[in-house]
Design goal:
- The complex is a heterodimer.
- By secondary structure, chain A is mainly α.
- Helix content of chain A is about 60%, strand content about 5%.
- Chain A has a three-stranded antiparallel sheet, covered by helices on one side.
- The N and C termini of chain B lie far apart (about 55 Å).
- In chain B, helix 4 runs parallel beside helix 6.
- Chain B has six helices and twelve strands.
- In chain B, strand 11 and strand 12 form a beta hairpin.
- By secondary structure, chain B is α/β, with parallel strands linked by helices.
- The chains are: A mainly alpha, B alpha/beta.
- At the A-B interface, strand 1, helix 2, helix 3 and helix 12 of A face helix 3, strand 8 and helix 4 of B.
């Protein structure tokens, strides 16, 4: 039997004795390279070997300590190399998506603070978020608003307090930083738009760059997303609703983040579940092509559009309720769900379910 | 301050009636994850937080720890090295092979390896023992803490490859990774049963205890691999 080990290739007899050995040179760079390549090798040991004994028997090393020291050095080298190779395109997209979420959070918080703070000095200013930050960064005190600006009359008759120079500096600096955060957000968005086409052409074609990037990020990578069944793709991002469904009587979520796709968002509530299923199926298909080196295939999108069209035609009217209970149609409700499936309608489980319907499409941003 | 030894390399430092689980610091003056360092008669001890380490919790739950000064240990699911650092403290004359699959946590683990001479990092999938069969020798103890749905299978196939005859397996089973919905008690029962016979390796379970209050829904298992009877 032949066996590849980290220090060389061995030929072993039936009872495990070494017949021949082809040892590698004791060069750490080469050994590390060999260690990484060996993973692909067909002749890796099929069962565990006492490698230390074998290395001593072959004369690769003379002492136990030498074995430890050498193996440790090579393993660290090999692992470092593997780590440096893990920065792939889809990982960069994930970083960008997550950075965008962080930036959004920070921008919201800071702009709320700015609204509160600047409101003391110019309460009539009806700007919000980014436009407000730009305004404060540009003018500072309301006394600096020029006559031809559309805020001039409000600024000159404001009931706001006087703004001291020190405070003005502080506020202006704060607003300038906030503007920088908004700029960063735009850059990130552009980066995702520009790169998604290369990372996942088919996914981008069907779902669009932002949604596609979000899906990759939630799955943790393009390959991982490709390995998901499409039923999982359908509900990614609706974790709370899904686990509630699994644990209790709550209805299953119809869609996770894919809700943001115009096909679902723009559909009436009774078609959404069906379209979500079709869309998730095609997304899975597209991602698998992308992950395994396929080129852009426009036919997936054409087929999806056809399918969605047929769903629209087949279900033009909302289904009739079988239950006498009046239900509010809406994205969060399982409209037209047969009442018979809910055995214990009068018990706690049902009430709980209907109270928290908002949670059902958990991936939808507020 | 007094020190009591619980087993090889594992101590309890007693300060004002409080017993603090700890190990000898192999790399004095340095704390790995912000834990407390304690000097007793010129010897530095490192606090071992059982809330952050399954192995630490197993010690306090009364498990017989099979790791000795000169053991060779295969550690599956090393993560960023919180527990591995304590295993490394114990193994003054031994070696630990730390297998971890995530490149992100491996980054932290490598920093630890750079400081300590007895940790060998391996970036590989514990589901595929063959992918590191050319690196890992036969070991005395396997410790496993992976959050995978097939935890028993991973433990069994790795034991088959690398565990010596009569070697010990220490396993932390996380029920939430196997089934988020089912009751942990049932998951534990099924998983231990699978371990005992489903994968062509037989184990004798020596001890099993849940790891609460340190870790919710985790079961600690100590088992010895049966030697196959040739006759």
């Amino acid at each position: 039997m032949k066996a590849v080990t980290w220090f060389g290739t061995l030929k072993l007899s039936e009872n495990g004795d070494v017949e021949e050995c082809y040892l590698l040179e004791k060069d750490t760079e080469q050994l590390a390279q060999h260690m990484l390549l060996a993973v692909e090798n067909e002749e890796l040991p099929t069962h565990g070997l006492d490698l230390r004994e074998l290395a001593l028997a072959c004369g690769f090393v003379e002492l136990d300590e030498d074995y430890d020291v050498l193996l440790r050095e090579i393993c660290i080298k090999a692992a470092k190399r593997q780590i440096s190779m893990t920065d792939t395109d889809d990982k960069r997209i994930i970083q960008a998506v997550e950075a965008m979420d962080d930036v959004d959070k920070a921008a919201n918080e800071l702009s709320e603070r700015l609204t509160e703070w600047y409101g003391v000095y110019f309460p009539e200013l009806e700007l919000t978020a980014e436009s407000m930050a730009r305004f404060v960064a540009r003018f500072g005190s309301r006394e600096n608003v020029p006559e031809d600006h559309n805020m001039f009359s409000k600024a000159s008759s404001s009931m706001g307090a006087e703004l001291s120079l020190v405070d003005e500096d502080l506020l202006r600096n704060f607003a300038t930083n906030l503007c920088g955060i908004y700029d960063t957000r735009k850059n990130l968005e552009q980066y995702i738009m520009a790169n998604m086409g290369a990372v996942a052409p088919n996914l981008t074609n069907i779902a669009g760059a932002p949604l596609g990037a979000r899906l990759i990020s939630l799955a943790g990578g393009l390959k991982k997303l490709a390995a998901f069944p499409s039923s999982t793709v359908q509900v990614i991002g609706a974790n709370n609703a899904l686990f509630k469904h699994l644990r209790s009587r709550a209805p299953s979520p119809k869609h996770g983040v894919i809700f943001n796709h115009p096909f679902i968002k723009g559909a009436p509530w009774w078609q959404r579940g069906k379209i979500a299923r079709a869309l998730a199926a095609k997304i899975s298909l597209a991602v698998r092509m992308d992950a395994y080196g396929g080129k852009l295939d426009p036919s997936i999108k054409v087929n999806l559009e056809r399918k969605v069209e047929s769903i629209r035609k087949a279900h033009p009217e909302p289904p009739k309720k079988q239950s006498t209970k009046v239900t509010q149609p809406g994205p969060g409700r399982a409209g037209g769900r047969p009442a018979k499936k809910r055995g214990g309608q009068k018990k706690g489980g049902m009430n709980k379910g209907s109270k928290n319907t908002d949670d059902r499409s958990g991936g939808r941003p507020a | 301050m007094k020190v009591e030894q619980l087993s090889d390399g594992i101590f309890e430092v007693i300060i004002d009636d409080r017993k603090i689980l700890s190990t000898h610091n192999l790399y004095p003056g340095h704390s790995v994850y912000g834990e407390r360092l304690m000097d007793v008669d010129g010897v530095e001890y490192r606090q071992w937080d059982p809330h952050r380490s399954k192995l630490g919790a197993m010690v306090l739950k009364g498990f017989e720890i099979p790791i000795e000064y000169d053991s060779h240990v295969l550690y599956l699911g090393a993560a960023s090295g919180t527990t591995v650092s304590h295993v490394s403290d114990i193994l003054t004359d031994g070696l630990v092979y730390a297998v971890e699959f995530s490149p992100r946590t491996m980054r932290d683990l490598i920093k630890l390896c750079d400081q300590r001479p007895n940790i060998i990092p391996i970036l590989a999938d514990a589901n595929q023992p063959r992918s590191y069969a050319h690196i890992v020798e036969t070991v005395d103890v396997i410790f496993q803490d992976v959050a995978q749905p097939n935890q028993a299978e991973i433990a069994a196939i790795n034991s088959k490859y690398f565990l010596e005859e009569d070697g010990h397996l220490m396993l932390s089973i996380k029920s939430r990774s196997i089934d988020t919905v089912a009751s942990p008690k049932k998951v534990f029962k099924d998983e231990v049963k699978k371990l005992e016979g489903d994968f062509g390796v037989e184990f004798e379970v020596l001890q099993r205890k849940e790891l609460d209050p340190f870790h919710e829904d985790h079961l600690g298992v100590l088992a010895r691999m049966f030697v196959e009877d040739e006759a």
